[in-house]
Amino acid sequence: MLVRLPELPNRAAALTALEDIFFLSTLRKDFASAEERAAFFRTWTGWYVERAPDDLWFALAEDGTVIGYLTGCKDSAGALDLARIIPKYEVFADRFAAFPAHLHINVRPGFRDHGIGRALVDRFAEDCRADDLPGLHLVTGVFARNVAFYQRAGFTAATQRGALLFLGRRLD
């Protein structure tokens, strides 16, 4: 089941699960302090929780356990404060007009390769299409293991800049 953050009965528990999944999924594992770890988490999730809760989707198992999440923004160009928060946000700003929405997604280990990530992406894409957006995008590493997943999910417009790869999905 896919549910938006505001629709969840226990928002605090969902956000705790998001944090757990985030740190299970991130490549960075070492932090000098708890404060540094918390700041890293806020960098990559804080804006979405605070400013775009309707674009924060959770995948729930039958028992209600959070098994994945998607954070999204439907106006990448208009979210100027994200450019000050997320490193290298502006690298692909010239692609935002064609692909104005963006997303970040993570699925709990043990639940990957079961269509959960694809369901989250497709649900966010439906929302973006309903808002008449022409496309959505994400940025990953050129050699990241998730590139093939995103290509299968329809992200076929690719632009590489250095080690970063922009992948866009047209919605029209």
UniProtKB/TrEMBL annotation:
Pfam families: Acetyltransf_1 (PF00583). Residues 8-172 form the N-acetyltransferase domain. InterPro entries: Acyl_CoA_acyltransferase (IPR016181), GNAT_dom (IPR000182). This is N-acetyltransferase family protein. It comes from Azospirillum argentinense. The lineage of its organism: Bacteria, Pseudomonadati, Pseudomonadota, Alphaproteobacteria, Rhodospirillales.
